[in-house]
């Protein structure tokens, strides 16, 4: 493993040391590795969400020309659709 130097705020240091002292983690390094794993998971979820949004955007563009509608008309159409579904 490679050793890195990282600067942390006082609050972060207290949180890290508390996690180790409580026995939840065996070492400071273990806490940081776990935090990095969670960060990697969050980054992957962001990529998946962005891909989903891009697909939805492309599907919207491919669905045809848009139309102008006022709020009352849209609400009435949505209510009619909901009634037809039961």
Automatic annotation (TrEMBL):
Q: Does the keyword Transmembrane apply?
A: no
Q: Which SUPFAM superfamilies does the entry mention?
A: Ribbon-helix-helix
Q: What are the entry keywords?
A: Toxin-antitoxin system
Cite the InterPro entries for this sequence.
ParD (IPR022789), ParD_sf (IPR038296), Ribbon_hlx_hlx (IPR010985)
Top-level lineage group = Bacteria
In terms of Pfam families, this protein maps to: ParD_antitoxin
Protein family per UniProt:
Belongs to the ParD antitoxin family.
Give the protein name, as stated in the record: Type II toxin-antitoxin system ParD family antitoxin
């Amino acid at each position: 493993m490679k050793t890195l130097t990282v600067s942390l705020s006082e609050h972060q240091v207290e949180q890290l040391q508390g996690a180790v002292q409580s026995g939840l983690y065996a070492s400071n390094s273990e806490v940081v590795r776990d935090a990095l794993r969670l960060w990697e998971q969050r980054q992957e979820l962001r990529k998946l969400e962005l891909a989903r949004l891009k697909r939805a955007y492309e599907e919207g563009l491919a669905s045809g020309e848009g139309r102008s509608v006022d709020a009352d008309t849209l609400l009435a159409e949505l209510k009619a659709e909901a009634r037809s579904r039961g």
